Write the structure tokens for this entry.
Amino acid sequence: MKSRNVIILSLLALNLLLPGISFADRIKDLASIQGVRNNQLIGYGLVVGLDGSGDMTTQTPFTVQSVINMLGQLGVNLPPGTNLQLRNVAAVMVTATMPAFAKPGQHIDITVSSMGNAKSLRGGTLLLTPLKGADNQVYAMAQGNILVGGIGAAAGGSSVQVNHLSVGRVTSGGIVEREIPTTVGQGDFINLELNTTDFTTVNRIVDAINGLYPTAASAVDGRVVQVKAPVDNSQRIMFISQIESLDVKPARASAKVIVNSRTGSVVMNQAVTLESSAVAHGNLSIIINTEPVISQPGAFAQRGETVVTQRSQVEIRTDEGNLMLLPNGADLGEVVKALTAIGATTQDLLSILQALKAAGSLRADLEII
């Protein structure tokens, strides 16, 4: 029992310390090598073997045309005017992502999506389908049995939950037929491209690389770092591996507030404070007061200095006379939480946030999606 209490107290102490610990990210997580990228492929094909859930041929004539063309290539010629009822066939679009350095013969996953009015692709088999790139060249071939998710019995087997059945996947259903040339750097240099533009993070990456390889890295702009690398290919790969494993603490992102106008979700990437302002919207009125608080050392203190901080209070009123005070400060998260608690709608939140942004009280980027 004593050892158990010691473990619990240790975990509690660790939880108290965690918020103050700053973690660094690897350069691999913050940037990518310029030129090393994936490529998207697309193709048109047919799925057969469906249990009567295929396309309605009277409404999707391209399915019938595709079947006739396929049978002609296989040596089966249908008499003109043949009426085909293809309830077990569906026309689909096949998409895949070809990773960098993929070699002929390697397998890739593919996604199969119905483009007609098929009710379900469950149990179907994708026929041999060429996958092309943006240059209209064939880079892979796809075929295989389709796995459709979203079907399962509820607890106790009393009901069945059916979700989206017009899209499925074929694991390792694509085979690479042509390699896409990928160059790792140009000449004596490689370029690191940050996932997001940030001058501070670029500067920290340059310092981290130069700490291991002096004068090897230089910043090109707020997104690209140029690094001098060995010319020999094997040495360059080892050099990139060491560079990617370096730890860098990324800069704190600029404050941003994202509002989803459809769901009403409000997301903030950090604590966003509000300046003094007043907003009137419908039956709501919001008043934000900010005043300085001066803290001085005691009369007989040997040392100390005067500290000036800002204390703010948020007051929310309604026409019904309801009053809500937020004494903990003008924090946007608390304001949004309070507005939601008194029944403010999504449109109310949007209008209030836009008003705060226009008045200069909201010191953050406001993005509405």
About this structure: Residues 39-176 form one domain. Residues 1-21 have pLDDT under 50 and may be disordered.
